[in-house]
Specification:
It is a single chain. With 169 residues, the protein is α/β, with parallel strands linked by helices. The chain has a single domain, classed as Fe-S hydro-lyase, tartrate dehydratase beta-type, catalytic domain (fumarase, Alpha-Beta Barrel), CATH 3.20.130.10. It is built from five helices and eight strands, in the order E-H-E-H-E-H-E-H-E-H-E-E-E. The protein has a five-stranded mixed β-barrel. The two termini are 24 Å apart.
Length: 169
């Protein structure tokens, strides 16, 4: 039976997630990929991330764009995405959703910040039914690659990296 995970994710809930766990994720999550994540990192560095109107602590970031066709994971090991995982985790992100194997250094960084990575199957139609509200949080000029906030209900995923381990090892 999948573990039920609701946002925001507490430190205790993140610590309880283990590699191979199946989860169903509910609540509000952020969506962003290669075009927007470097901009979010700059806001964190500049100390302006608070102007997003979303608390990053306990939050989830789904490596995806939001389009009329729905949402589906992109490869998390793209340079712009994977290099964002450690600083976003340090800023409070507890769960990164995407697809693909991560480098060992990224898995170690997740562990240092009590954050986890979950792989989500590329099933856009299924996720569309489980996606409710959506709004652009920042960078609307990026269109479907802007930073979005969506409400999800029981998104299926599998913990792919946690506590220094990976399902890809």
């Amino acid at each position: 039976m999948p573990k039920q995970v609701t946002t925001p994710i507490s430190e205790e809930a993140a610590a309880d997630l283990q590699v191979g766990d199946t989860i169903e994720l509910s609540g509000y999550i952020l969506c962003g990929r290669d075009a927007v994540l470097p901009k979010v990192l700059k806001m964190i560095d500049d100390g302006t991330a608070g102007s997003l109107g979303v608390d990053l602590r306990g939050q989830v970031i789904f490596h995806t764009a939001v389009s009329p066709a729905g949402v589906g994971p992109t490869s998390s090991n793209k340079l712009e995405i994977e290099s964002s995982i450690e600083p976003l985790s340090a800023a409070g992100i507890k769960l990164h959703l995407g697809k693909g194997a991560l480098h060992p250094e990224t898995i170690a960084a997740l562990d240092r910040h009590n954050a986890v990575y979950a792989v989500i199957p590329p099933v856009t139609a299924l996720l569309g039914v489980k996606t409710g509200e959506e709004r652009v949080v920042a960078f609307p000029e990026l269109g479907m690659e802007a930073l979005h906030l969506i409400r999800v209900d029981r998104y299926p995923a599998i913990i792919g990296a946690a506590h220094g381990k990976s399902i890809y090892d």
